[in-house]
Write the structure tokens for this entry.
Amino acid sequence: MIRLLAAATLLVGLAAVPAQSQSLDPTSQDALDKTLRMLLDPAARSGEVSRSTQGAAVDQQVRALAGSEALTQEVYALAGQVLSELVQSTGGDTQKMLQALDRAKSDPAGFAALLSPATQQQLRELAVKLSDKPR
């Protein structure tokens, strides 16, 4: 589960929990919406990740971790959920998001504990799926 959270955290960091949800200004909400659409649409995501070597490397790591297109899509969907919660909880404050992601690198379980119960459950379920897949 920690590897999965680390991958999700890395994805969230490239695309850029609930203490208390803050409302976003229209520009931030639009940016979040566009990023979420990109994470969920394989064709749009492919175009974006190919624009940088770092994006391509992360995508390759996600695909290796997932082992299938279906699980790859689930990882990206979970990353989108984590991103959404992170953006909402920080009110879109880039510095706060970067600080949270930096802390997540050294304490992924602590970061996961800040996520909503529904997202934590999705994280657990996906971790089980990934650990059960043939290697």
The chain has one domain: 2-132. Residues 38 and 45 are 5 Å apart (CA to CA).
